[in-house]
Design goal:
The chain is of the alpha+beta class and 455 residues long. Helix content is 47%, strand content 14%. It contains 16 helices and twelve strands. Strand 9 and strand 10 form a beta hairpin. The termini are far apart.
Length: 455
């Protein structure tokens, strides 16, 4: 009865007994969390980092030595030896090429230094001093400098191509020397090149060689030599310079193994005719525009140099025409040059292996003197030489005129079309339709007239 009155008059209800829920049985049975260990505990300091008030335990993801084994690096173990071998081969190949280029420089720098005032890119005389040249001391200095030649004497353009330079000589503006070597640092490329050369003649592997190009003054010293200091003409008389001009022509002595390639690759050589000479070895031939030119240039020193060089000789070219076929009238302007190409000996461990080619290189450096003295021919010879050049110039003129005529026609048609469109935009729709019908009728009649003429 007392419970009824409590319910009627708002008495506080008695708490119901706790009910058991199967879904939360695990949480109900879980023990209360233990107090967190202190930060000074050795277990926490060595294994469990503390971030704020929460501790993050280490797992195997952070312990590489526990989650990885040597068997996981099988791919790397296979690739790594190939990378090491490639790096070692590259280093060996580049060092070998540097050594070979430096050996060439050591063997030839005395000859070049004795012929030119400046050798290299430094702009200073290479030798004991500016007045006296000590070529032998310079060669000895290069020998004791390791595998690297001084950059002012020899520049490395690529790992298989090196260059040097010489200037300061009468009748010669400057000479560029280029040494081309095998790509020893890339044996895969060399191997593929050798394989393809067996099937394709045009992909023959390039031999190791030296190319020299001498640019003659030809009476244009003022374009190459800097002007004198103002006032120096009053202090001293200007020295007389010999006439450095000579007649323009194309003449060459070529190794027969290079003859076809030169004729295909070089426009200037293609202007010549080929004829063997009894004074030259059987593996060489003469390519000339006139027999009189051959008689003047084929001297005893040249013949002896070619014989001593043997199979190392590739070609010697005297030219005033471009290497590539001219496509415009500007490219037909004569530019007189001398080209020499010599193979490098296969075994260049000793400097004596370059001895056979030194006489020919010396003759090449002195050849401009011979040209200025003897390369002046009869008008009949020059008339024949100029005829070939005039024919080419005439062809280029006709091509240029045809091109300009096509351009003029195109411009006229373009102007006419613009005027027509401008006129149509100023007309109404009906008038535009009548104009277009008249143009279509005019085209139809022209087509009928052409068909009638053909029939």
């Amino acid at each position: 009865m007392a419970q009824v009155f409590k319910n009627l008059f708002g008495g506080a209800p008695a708490n119901p007994p706790p009910s058991e829920d199967a879904d939360f049985a695990d949480f109900a049975a879980a023990p209360s969390p233990a107090s967190a260990p202190s930060a000074s505990s050795p277990l926490i300091s060595s294994q469990t980092p503390i971030s704020g008030s929460a501790a993050v335990p280490y797992t195997k993801w952070y312990r590489v030595w526990e989650r990885a084994s040597p068997s996981d690096f099988k791919t790397e173990a296979i690739i790594l030896p190939f990378i090491i071998v490639a790096v070692l081969v590259h280093l060996w190949g580049t060092r070998k090429n540097k050594r070979k280029a430096k050996d060439w420089l050591v063997a030839h720098v005395p000859t070049i230094n004795s012929e030119f005032a400046l050798v290299g890119f430094s702009g200073q005389k290479q030798g004991a001093n500016a007045e006296e040249t000590d070529s032998e001391d310079l060669a000895e200095k290069l020998k004791s400098g390791g595998i690297h030649a001084p950059p002012e004497l020899l520049k490395e353009k690529t790992s298989n191509e090196f260059a040097t330079y010489a200037s300061g000589r009468q009748n010669v503006a400057f000479v560029d020397f280029k040494i081309v070597l095998n790509k020893r640092y890339n044996p895969i490329y060399v191997g593929l090149e050798q394989i393809f050369s067996l099937f394709f003649e045009s992909m023959a592997p390039q031999s190791e060689h030296m190319e020299a190009i001498a640019y003659t003054f030809d009476g244009k010293e003022s374009q190459y030599v800097p002007p004198s200091v103002p006032g120096s003409n009053e202090l001293a008389e200007k020295p007389k310079v010999a006439n450095s001009t000579y007649d323009g022509f194309v003449w060459a002595v070529v190794n027969k193994s290079k003859m076809k390639k030169l004729r295909d690759d070089r426009y200037d050589v293609s202007l010549t005719s080929t004829k063997d000479h009894p004074k030259l070895p059987g593996y060489t031939t003469v390519m000339s525009e006139s027999a009189e030119i051959t008689d003047a240039l084929l001297t005893k020193n040249l013949i002896d140099g070619v014989e001593q060089a043997g199979e190392l000789f590739e070609y010697l070219i005297v030219t005033d025409q471009p290497v590539d076929k001219p496509l415009s009238l500007d490219e037909t302007t004569p530019r007189k040059r001398l080209h020499l190409s010599l193979r490098l000996p296969p075994s260049s461990s000793s400097l004596s292996s370059y001895a056979p080619t030194l006489p020919l290189l010396t003759h090449f450096l002195r050849l401009p003197d011979t040209l200025t003295s003897h390369a002046h021919f009869r008008p009949e010879v020059l008339r024949k030489v100029r005829q070939t050049r005039d024919d080419q110039i005439s062809k280029l003129k006709r091509q240029a005129e045809a091109t300009s005529e096509e351009e003029r026609k195109g411009m006229a048609e373009k102007v006419k079309k613009e005027e027509r469109e401008k006129r149509l935009r100023g007309l109404g729709a009906e008038e535009q339709r009548k104009v277009l019908e008249r143009e279509a009728e005019r085209k139809r009649k022209k087509g009928e007239k052409r068909a009638t003429r053909r029939g």
